[in-house]
Amino acid sequence: MSQTEVSTVTPPLVPLGTLIGRELRSENVEKPIIRYGQAALAKKGEDYFLINPDCHRTPGNPSTSFSVFAIFDGHNGISAAVFAKEHLLNNILSAVPESSSREEWLLALPRALVAGFVKTDIEFQQKGESSGTTVTLVVIDGWTVTAACVGDSRCVLDTQGGVVSDLTVDHRLEENEEERARVTASGGEVGRLNVFGGNEVGPLRCWPGGLCLSRSIGDTDVGEFIVPVPHVKQVKLSDAGGRLIIASDGIWDALSSEAAAKACRGLPADLAAKLVVKEALRSRGLKDDTTCVVVDIIPSVHPVLPPMTQKKHHGLSGLLFGKKSHNLASKSSKLSAVGAVEELFEEGSAMLAERLGKDFPMNPDSGLFRCAICQVDHPANEGLSLNSGTFFSPSSKPWEGPFLCANCRRKKDAMEGKRPIKPTFSI
């Protein structure tokens, strides 16, 4: 089918609430089975992973279950990776309003992911350690998959029919021109390593510090223009299901997304993860920590994921997922031209003003305002709205946008290059 033919049959946008309502009302659409496997080979011992297949939106209520899978690829030590593994999920969930319905929970999740990543970064930097970590975290609730990432770990979706698409974006300075521009505009310098004689070698890095990534958790010594604000993508699978391959860059430096998916098609998840690691080792050798988690989202009536036939892609991945960002408030979705995936949300901006919405929550019991990042209540005079100026003035609009406490506002300003990058550590 040509691109022209595909575009002519694309249905209109469907609100997320309508999609979920259809799912809840349909007797034929049951919650999928989640099966997973993990494999790893260590070179430096800085990769960590998180597997939690039985989380609950409402504590103790199995009908509200969802699953979480994550990869943490540490550098300059393990502290940031370990800290993120232990604290990130709780920080994300604390940013979701209590007593939310499933629809409200899924709508709030992208913003909660941003708040949770930034809060985890603030808390880790207060420890005074200089290590950092990439994070790719995936939440699966029914047929809805939400992926958030900083750094160059990756989540790949392989659907029935053999169409492979990335749910994440690599934040490598070498490949990401938009991120290079953001870092330099915020006060960082981007360049290659200079060796004796003035020759430049290796990938593009951010100076000071020499990090080749533009986003991570930690990395206090590099500068706060290396931000923890994640790219977030949320999609809804058809009831045919699909496979997720979540892996550190030890895999992706050796294999393309398509090669990794093709290598393990038709195998159960535990064997698939081992084969992806084995294939990466065969292709490149063990040059870095290599960790892979494979997750199968399977219809309950077909408990075994069948082999998927390979098709020529010819840009079908681009048809599946356009690069257009979607406003969370619009609650819109885009129906895949192939019919396997419906895109619900995507946003990758590093600017908190574009990621935290415009509401200004007040705790009705205390009359205090709740910080959109740290989720702590504060009097109005102890913080500012995210969209206000530095001081209240007739020209500023202090009560527009989410409330940020003074500490989180300082973090926002530092990430945007609006104050000197001089991190403070608590003892």
TrEMBL record:
Q: What Gene3D superfamilies does the record tag this protein with? A: PPM-type phosphatase domain (3.60.40.10)
Pfam families assigned: PP2C (PF00481)
Extract one GO BP annotation from the record.
regulation of intracellular signal transduction
**The entry's keywords:** Hydrolase, Magnesium, Manganese, Metal-binding, Protein phosphatase
Q: Which GO MF terms are attached to this record?
A: metal ion binding; protein serine/threonine phosphatase activity
Q: Which residues form the PPM-type phosphatase domain?
A: 28-297
Q: Which family does it belong to?
A: Belongs to the PP2C family.
Protein name (database record): protein-serine/threonine phosphatase
